[in-house]
User: Which sequence fits this backbone?
């Protein structure tokens, strides 16, 4: 609309500009949501083949494992059209760490009425945890269409006040060999005094600077190069961005070579290999790093940047 002088009134121009600004804000928010907001993806993704994941200890014998007082691990395999196992029983007031993988297609893992709800992708392991404070029986459902039998893919998850004597619950078997057990005990003490401030006593890391050790240490154990890289990180420190559990961390790891002896370093490596459920995910042929190997590793000297490069080369993917 124009005035008698043929010009558009100022108030219309103002509203036109306001409308354009509003549209720009809406488009900006839409793009931000699309590219940066978190989606419903596994919280603990591990890029790996389905075959390799199903050979891990926790999925060779899926079910409930007691990790410690008031702490349990539940591992399940989703496949068309069932969960394995199809019934889980855990006690109330305990932390439950769920690890779920798919043996075939994309599935969902949901306990309706709770916050437990993750997408389960073949070749990945989804991780989510929760604490249930009162007895209740939940359905376990697949909320992603996975084929013509999708509607029949239902399991049961029961929270009880006390686990029955015949409950299907196993425990982490103690490491064989008194020498290794002694190293783990020594390593637990050294970890508490030198590592827990950053990586935390529960192994879950801190912020965007210090990565979790829970669930990530077994990745190092799959090759000699990976184990050597972990040893070098502990001895010589690390500087530079790394990827762990699907997230980028960019802190600086101090060098402990001058403050820890060979047995303490080997002990920390033995401890973190078994702690927080890592022992259920280590390769079948895994052997703890011996103090003699730590002594040999000290023969070289490395900078934090060189350790970062060696770590990336060990994984072959720049992590």
Assistant:
């Amino acid at each position: 609309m124009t005035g008698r002088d043929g010009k558009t009134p100022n108030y219309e121009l103002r509203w036109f500009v306001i409308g354009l600004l509003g549209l720009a804000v809406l488009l900006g928010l839409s793009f931000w949501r699309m590219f940066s907001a978190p989606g419903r993806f596994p919280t603990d993704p591990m890029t790996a083949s389905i075959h390799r994941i199903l050979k891990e200890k926790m999925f060779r014998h899926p079910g409930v494992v007691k990790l410690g007082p008031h702490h349990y691990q539940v591992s399940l395999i989703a496949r068309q059209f069932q969960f394995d196992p199809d019934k889980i029983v855990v006690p109330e007031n305990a932390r439950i760490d769920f690890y779920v993988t798919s043996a075939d297609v994309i599935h969902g893992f949901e306990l309706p009425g709770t916050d437990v709800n993750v997408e389960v992708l073949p070749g990945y392991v989804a991780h989510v945890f929760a604490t249930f404070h009162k007895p209740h029986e939940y359905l376990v459902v697949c909320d992603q269409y996975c084929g013509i039998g999708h509607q029949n893919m239902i399991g049961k998850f029961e929270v009880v006040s006390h686990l029955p004597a015949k409950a299907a619950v196993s425990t982490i078997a103690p490491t064989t060999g008194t020498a290794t057990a002694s190293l783990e005990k020594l390593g637990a003490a050294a970890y508490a005094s030198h590592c827990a401030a950053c990586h935390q006593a529960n192994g879950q890391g801190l912020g965007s600077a210090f990565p979790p050790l829970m669930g990530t240490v077994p990745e190092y154990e799959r090759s000699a190069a990976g184990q050597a890289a972990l040893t070098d990180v502990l001895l010589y420190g690390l500087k530079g961005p790394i990827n762990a559990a699907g997230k980028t961390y960019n802190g600086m790891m101090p060098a402990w070579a001058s403050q820890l002896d060979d047995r303490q370093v080997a002990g920390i490596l033995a401890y973190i290999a078994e702690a927080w459920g890592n022992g259920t995910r280590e390769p079948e042929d895994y052997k703890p790093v011996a103090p003699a190997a730590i002594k040999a590793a000290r023969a070289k000297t490395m900078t934090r940047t060189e350790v970062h490069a060696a770590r990336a080369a060990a994984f072959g993917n720049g992590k």
The two ends are 61 Å apart (CA to CA). Residues 35-48, 173-178 have pLDDT under 50 and may be disordered. The chain has two domains: 50-171, 178-315. The first strand starts at residue 63 and ends at 68.
